[in-house]
Amino acid sequence: MEFVTLKKDEVLFRQGDVADGFMYEIMAGSVNVYGEQDGHEQLLTTLNVGESFGELALLGEGVRTATVVAAEKTMLYPVDKAGMRVYFRERPAKFYSMMQRVSGRIRDLSKDYVKASAVLEEYTAAKEAGKPVDDELNAAMKAVINAGKKKGRK
Amino acid sequence: MADRKQFAAGEVICAEGKYENFMYVINTGKAGVYAAYGTPRQKELTVLEQGSVVGELGLLEAMPRSATVVALEDVTALKVTAENFSVAFKEHEDIIFGTLTRMADRLVELTDDYMEVCAAIAEYVEAQQAGAPEAGGLLARIREMLSTVVYY
């Protein structure tokens, strides 16, 4: 597999891009990971040599969930689905953290369901009682509605 | 190997609600998975054959056991902890890879369902704001969607 080289500030992929099916391990350099929060792009983390990212693309996730930009001249080792068995065989600890990442996402999503359900019930109760919907509830409802809109991007 | 466990038929392998930070790979025998085990509401969820993994969320997320697992016949199982994960992974690569694939499928499915329910909520709010009377049917459907999500 050929290494991928990035110049400083070069974008590898953007949040919402259709995933190319690769995860990447950083062989040299570092990358900044950005995500959209409240409509603004924010730096979430910086990843360094030995760290990897984009694992969920190997597992059939269709869309990149963050933007990755080279923080300096960077060299990446790409791993695709065909190569993942061999890659992880030698790196059980990385496999473990990948499992943790997936289970963490499942847990977060379960919490989102509970939250959406609570927000919906509160909204419905307010409407039925003819009470105004307060700002906090409105904001919570908007967040839920926006999550639904992302569906169109897939 | 110290992490090799034996359970006699009828013995409880995992108890619902209990916090345990490990999972098992079932090497031989069958085990039943139950909700509300030993109560009038007891329900068999599935039967695990040899080569199954059980309790991965306990290992990965420090979550309480979501169901009770009972040996249906004599069972031998490998107890997998964070400490011996690498050894277990080498020994049972296919099985543990399969567990990740299953979790990933579940994640994709949950994500799709979540976006669908949010889109339906958006539709409901729009209907409410427009004062549309048919919003009641939609609300029932959304509640149904939200209630059918079983955690794992």
Outline of the structure:
In chain A, 40% of the residues lie in helices and 25% in strands.
- Portion of residues in beta strands of chain B equals 15-25%
Largest interface: A-B, 39 and 43 residues
Element string of chain A (H = helix, E = strand)? EEEEEEEEHHH
User: What are the low-pLDDT stretches of chain A, counting only 5+ consecutive residues below 50?
Assistant: none
How confident is the prediction overall: mean pLDDT of chain A?
A: 87
What overall geometry of chain A do the principal axes of the alpha carbons give?
elongated
**Structural class label of chain B:** alpha+beta
Helical content class of chain A: 25-40%
Number of strands of chain A: 8
Q: Report the oligomer.
A: heterodimer
What can be said about the biggest beta sheet of chain A?
4 strands, antiparallel
Principal-axes shape call of chain B: elongated
Could you characterize the architecture of this molecule?
The complex is a heterodimer of chains A (154) and B (152). Chain A has 154 residues and is α+β, with helices and mostly antiparallel strands. Chain A has a 4-stranded antiparallel sheet. Chain A is elongated and about 65 Å long. Chain B is α+β, with helices and mostly antiparallel strands and 152 residues long. In chain B, a hairpin with a 7-residue loop joins strand 4 and strand 5.
Lay out the secondary structure:
The complex is a heterodimer of chains A (154) and B (152).
Chain A: E1 4-6, E2 11-13, E3 23-28, E4 31-37, E5 40-47, E6 52-53, E7 67-70, E8 74-79, H1 81-89, H2 92-128, H3 135-149
Antiparallel strand pairs in A: 1-8, 2-7, 3-6, 3-8, 4-5, 4-7
Helix pairs in contact in A: 2-3
Chain B: E1 4-7, E2 12-14, E3 23-28, E4 31-35, E5 43-48, E6 53-54, H1 56-61, E7 68-71, E8 75-80, H2 85-91, H3 93-129, H4 135-147
Antiparallel strand pairs in B: 1-8, 2-7, 3-6, 3-8, 4-5, 4-7
Helix pairs in contact in B: 3-4
